[in-house]
Write a structure and sequence with these properties.
This protein is an alpha/beta fold and 258 residues long. It folds into two domains: 109 residues, Nucleotidyltransferase, domain 5, CATH 3.30.420; 144 residues, Nucleotidyltransferase, domain 5, CATH 3.30.420. The protein contains eight helices and ten strands. A hairpin with a 4-residue loop joins strand 6 and strand 7. The model has no long low-confidence stretch (mean pLDDT 94).
């Protein structure tokens, strides 16, 4: 049995192909761009090439993410809440809370021992505290997005970014730069503001050990560190946190065929 999960997000699209026993055969990550259907097709082709397979070799395909209805070759659509919960438990079986921070939304999910969502809270009204928020701030600071985590670790002073609105926070950052505030301190302040937003969501659903994090922002060690400090708990982060949703979708496809 070979299945695939396709996670079409606001900024990136991921595909995971799985074989019998939940064995991960291949995965791909590509920018979504302006056409989510084309992004899904391209990501699927890349994953199939890695696995040495063709589309007709796949027994079942589950799509998830905000663009899941735009995947014409999927057999089923499942919400990202369900897929991230299932994927996180695959990587870390003791997971009871999942923090997912993606390109344009963030969510905290409480899960059962079998990886099913029990409760969740989600911020999808604005880009505050998401990957898009960090992209805007990195441009304002004239630093690479990938270097934010490393730079925040060099901070020696704690400052507060008072606004969580992306537009107002950018103005605040520009003002701090003009005042001569070190970029490292500003970045640390931004990471703490994201952690505060996550903490608010976490309090709404209740946090249970273990806590795992998924989504592209989980690659930012500064954000992970800030959230961990605010929660007072360590965070599990898989080697490739961006594929958690697609992996969960592939697992659900596998279970549907059992």
């Amino acid at each position: 049995m070979i299945t695939a999960g396709v996670d079409v997000g606001a900024l990136s699209t991921e595909v995971v192909i799985m074989g019998d026993g939940g064995r991960l055969l291949a995965s791909s990550i590509l920018p979504t761009g302006a056409n989510s259907e084309r992004a899904a097709e391209r990501a699927m082709r890349e994953a199939l090439t890695q696995a040495g397979l063709r589309l007709e070799n796949l027994d079942r395909i589950v799509a998830t993410g905000y663009g899941r209805v735009r995947v014409p070759f999927a057999h089923q659509q499942v919400t990202e809440i369900t897929c991230h919960a299932r994927g996180a438990v695959y990587f870390f079986p003791r997971t009871r809370t999942v923090i997912d921070v993606g390109g344009q939304d963030s969510k905290v999910i409480r899960v059962s021992p079998r990886g099913k969502p029990v409760d969740f809270a989600m911020n999808d009204k604005c880009a505050a505290g998401t990957g898009r928020f960090l992209e805007v701030m990195a441009r304002a600071l004239e630093v690479d997005l990938e270097s934010l985590g490393e730079l925040s670790a060099q901070s020696r002073n704690e400052i507060t970014i008072s606004s969580m609105c992306t537009v107002f926070a950018e103005s605040e950052v520009v003002s701090l730069i003009a005042q001569g505030t070190p970029k490292e301190d500003i970045i640390r302040g931004l990471h703490n503001s994201i952690a505060d937003r996550i903490l608010t969501l976490a309090h709404r659903v209740g946090v249970e050990r273990e806590v795992s994090m998924s989504g592209g922002v989980a690659k930012n060690r500064g954000v992970v560190r800030a959230i961990s400090e605010k929660l007072g708990l360590p965070l599990n982060v898989p080697r490739e946190p961006q594929i958690v949703g697609a992996l969960g979708a592939a697992l659900l496809a596998l279970e549907a065929e059992d």
